[in-house]
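G., the chain you wanted modeled:
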Amino acid sequence: MKWKNIHGTGDNQASKSWLEVWKERTGHKSTPLCGRKGCGNVATLGGHVKKVDSSDNSWYLLPLCDSCNKLEDAFEKKESIPVAPAAK
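Predicted structure as tokens:
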């Protein structure tokens, strides 16, 4: 499955960082590596992403490094890194 960044979501800032929200919703305690397949950087934020070529228009959180959060093209995510719903 391919994923794509949703840009312009900075105004939707939660009271805590989106990476912290991702940790709470997935049960992860430590900061993971970036969730984009092929990237070995440490995640610096919780990026808003959506599925590509899917009828599911929901927004999800995925830990990403700053560089991968700026990507315009669709990408694959690491299977070991789960997404979390962006809204509850």
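The first helix runs from residue 18 to 26.

Shout if anything looks off.
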